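Postdoc handover notes: sequence design on the structure in folder B. Input tokens:
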């Protein structure tokens, strides 16, 4: 176990984050981006979003978004989660 006082930020393999817009759409964006504009017109601050998932590349992120989009149709209501 490394010393706890030496905790460098672990470089992540994941370059993309997957999140949800207030309109219900699932979106993905590069981690180093500041904002992402949803097709609904809303500009989302990536620092404020709740990250649902992460992906290594755009293809994987797109796939996750698609899966989430299908899943959300079956979902009944929100699960408020405060982390
Ligand atoms: Zn939206």
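Designed sequence:
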């Amino acid at each position: 176990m490394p010393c706890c006082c030496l905790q460098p930020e672990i470089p992540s393999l994941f370059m993309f984050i997957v999140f949800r817009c207030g309109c219900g759409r699932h979106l993905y964006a590069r981690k180093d981006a500041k904002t992402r504009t949803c097709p609904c017109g809303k500009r989302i601050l990536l620092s404020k979003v709740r990250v649902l998932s992460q992906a290594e590349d755009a293809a994987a992120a797109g796939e996750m978004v698609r899966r989430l989009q299908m899943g959300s149709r079956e979902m009944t209501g929100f699960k408020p989660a405060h982390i």
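Context for whoever picks this up: The two ends are 26 Å apart (CA to CA). Don't rerun without checking with the PI first.
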